[in-house]
Structures are given as C-alpha cells and as structure tokens.
# Entry
Amino acid sequence: MINNMAEIKVRSLTMQRILGLILFILGLSLTLWFWVRGVSQGYIYINASMLFPAFMIMGIGFLAFPIDPKAMKEKWGVEKIESVGQIPGIWWVIIALSIIVGIGNYFVLSSQ
# Structure
C-alpha cells in the first residue's frame, strides 16, 4: 500500500512519455469540449478554460522533453527534482508557455 504520494515514481522516460500522451489527449479533448460548450451555450468555465490547455502543453512537454533521471543523477546526485533550481531550462519555457496558453485561451474564449 502506498502511504505517501511521493512514493509513486515516474522516472522511466517511457512512463513520462505515456503520461505526456495522456495529458495531451485529456487536455485537448476537454479544451475542445469546453470550447463547444462555451460557443454554443455562452457560458465559460474560467478554471477549465485555463487549466486544460495548460495540461495539453505540459503533455507535449513530457512527450518531447522527458526528464532524464540518469542526467539528474550525474548533475545533481538525485534521481528526481527536489528543488526549483534542478528544473531543466526547457521546462521553465514549457511551464511559462502553458500558463500563457491557458490565460490566452480564456481571453479568446471569453471574447466569443
């Protein structure tokens, strides 16, 4: 039994890519669904309109740039990210892009 969520480890590059695919599909499908609802019914779910496009971008990030535990071990001596300074530079770009896309989606959807 897992007592702590920190015990669940997604360290394999394949598992990160599978997670990325799931996040991308989930984010894309729910973004499209909320777009259809927002345009047809005129009601926008603010949190969903920002969150699901961000999931989509994060999914693309995991698909294209999985975090390599071997590289982390060589550079930092750890197999998982334990501090903000250990986050790879490309992931800062992905995080910023996901926030921008989420906020942008809300503003575009709210102008419909």
Remarks:
- DSSP finds four helices and no strands in the chain.
- The chain has a mean pLDDT of 87.
